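Lab notebook, entry 390. We have the chain sequence and a SMILES string for fe (ii) ion, and the next step in the workflow is to get a structural model of the bound complex before anyone spends time on docking refinements. Request logged below.

Task: model protein plus fe (ii) ion, output structure tokens.
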Amino acid sequence: MVKPFQFARLPMIYFGSGKVNELPGIVSYYGKSVLLVTGAGSFINSSRADTLLLRLEEMGLKICQASVTGEPSPGIVDETGRRFGDTAVDVVVSIGGGSVMDAGKAISAMLGKNRSVIEYLEVAGDKEHPGTKVPFIAVPTTSGTGSEATKNAVISKVGKDGFKRSLRHDNLVPDIALVDPELTLSCSPEITAAAGMDCFTQLTESYLSTTANPYTDALALEGIRAVNRSLVRSFTNGDDIHAREDMAFAALTSGICLANAGLGAVHGLAGTIGAMFNIPHGAVCGTLMAAANKVNIRELRRSGNGDPALKKYAALGSIFSDTSAKSDSYYIDFFTDYMTAATYLMGMPELSRYGLKSEDLPMICSQSDVKNNPVQLSQEMMQEILLVRL
Ligand SMILES: [Fe+2]
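Result returned:
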């Protein structure tokens, strides 16, 4: 039996080492004016950026540039929209990590609208985005969020009255995802670890989501196989291009999966924590992953061993184990052991390092949406997850 499902459109995907060299030709297809959105990271100061800008100029393109530092805030999106609203921008290109891609995605959706992005955010706003936008090309330089394949841009305001809300529309899936693993070679071990654990969490949560479908399942397992081969390798040897290729593929795949299957408790909690505290998204996901899945598995086992989600956990464990013909229980425990080992090996930080205190936990849990988690979690169970990593 196949349950009813929807599957969002995909970007045109260009994947492979060296693909960034094709970017000028792709950009010129859209017109004569490009808005380039980059971060404070290494790309814009690299010789690659010099070469790209030179080639775009040689092709006669007018180049506008915007820089995004930190999380994409409503202020950055609105200010950039105002700055270039009267300019005839034919295409927006984001080259950077998840924040830069989300910012560019939102800017492409807000150019020319003369309104604040806040009006269109889920929960925080009261308008539905019409889905009109300037064409958008996403070029990731980290292997993490998968924003290059998703239909939402996460916009954040950090603080006690902060929020982390999505601008979402099916039309906001990037027109093109250009994924060149060579661009991730310069990622520091710390960023590689946080991004990699985010991607690992996204694949796991979308595979276990109550709204998963046969396509997302097949893709998620393929992404998890790449994680098994290369999560640790990309962290311990950042120059290993084959490991970088695997993780770039896993991240892209995780974006496709989460856009179509949703996520679970880790991302529900991470969204709330990320709005209240200045903590990198990948770090909070990575640090909570093992603890949350242990509680999930305990509760699924408590309700009897017949839940299909336990079969899925066993399938995940069998990818990481190099033994065959063991019991489901063996593979499930193997998977939790792997996640726990990865948490420590990848140096995932405790939450208190970013200012979380035990008295913050009830509010965090009461505001977190964990509805697609494979098992219902009580407020106490969510607090238990956070306490383990406080
Ligand atoms: Fe994530």
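Notes for the group: The chain is about 50% helix and 10% strand. Worth checking against the assay data. The pocket of fe (ii) ion is lined by residues 145, 198, 202, 267, 281, 285 (CB under 6 Å).
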